[in-house]
């Protein structure tokens, strides 16, 4: 991996022609431009540029606040709470986008949903009780729809907590690989 991408971060995708793609969004875009059976790049409302702008807003404004919130929650609670509170406008923006529709750009899932949902999930799980008590009716329904979906169960299967001495587990598990 370090030979093809010296920055040493994942994910990394090397194409057959030798091109290396080492940013998550760029990999998603390449994959969807190659094959997009759910039309994730063609939202029902809005367009690709608007989705990319919202994803960029999440990545540049919300994600750093999420990191501060989740990594300092136990060690520096005042700093964590400040970051959490600073992240609220983005969540309120998502809530307004989800008013009267199931997904961020209409009635069906899009690239924006797939890119933003995991980070909202991380945010929600820092302090679940606090998050689910907030007045983000539409965000809560959107997140809950994802968390209870077959898609989520497939991509985020539950595994028992590993401990030294436990049997090794293949990844992906044999029954999932077939």
UniProtKB/TrEMBL annotation:
Database matches in Gene3D superfamilies: 1.20.1050.130
Classification via Pfam families: GST_C_2, GST_N_2
Ranges for domain GST C-terminal: 44-164
UniProt-listed PROSITE patterns: GST_CTER
InterPro entries attached to this UniProt entry: Glutathione-S-Trfase_C-like, Glutathione-S-Trfase_C_sf, Glutathione_S-Trfase_N, Thioredoxin-like_sf
SUPFAM superfamilies: GST C-terminal domain-like, Thioredoxin-like
Record PANTHER family: GLUTATHIONE S-TRANSFERASE GSTA (PTHR44051:SF8), GLUTATHIONE S-TRANSFERASE-RELATED (PTHR44051)
Protein name: Glutathione S-transferase
Source organism: Maritalea porphyrae
